[in-house]
Design a protein that fits this description.
The chain has 120 residues and is of the alpha+beta class. The protein contains two helices and three strands. Helix 1 runs antiparallel to helix 2.
Length: 120
């Protein structure tokens, strides 16, 4: 038995008042609306990354859809296709990293750094 408890008595539930639960539910719903708004804004935003000193440039949106790919004609060498492939991969990976980083920062502002599964 807990300290200060008498036989046959149960402790009173703490923090389970109906008003408190309603307030918490409203806060969660408001946060959800804010998250949806941030997500929609991020999806419209564009991110650009380059590789090879600007020889390859990639633009993607917040949905991680590639919107533009620019390849400088000077890096197109039929004898060195692997270098061009590496430059494209580097630029694409960097732009995707940027999308993830900015998305995480924006959602982190809302969640206060809480790690909520399913977010970004």
């Amino acid at each position: 038995m807990g300290r200060g408890m008498k036989a046959g008595k149960r402790p009173k539930p703490q923090g389970m008042g109906g008003g408190n639960m309603q307030k918490q539910l409203q806060q969660v719903q408001a946060m959800q609306r804010q998250m949806e708004q941030i997500q929609a804004e991020l999806e419209e935003r564009e991110f650009t990354a380059t590789s090879g000193g600007g020889a390859v440039s990639v633009t993607a949106n917040g949905k991680k859809e590639l919107k533009n790919l620019v390849i400088d004609k000077d890096v197109v060498d039929p004898d060195d296709v692997e270098m061009l492939q590496d430059l494209i991969l580097a630029a694409v990976n960097e732009v995707m990293r940027q999308v993830d980083e900015v998305s995480g920062q924006e959602m982190g502002k809302l969640t206060g750094g809480l790690n909520i599964p399913g977010l970004m």
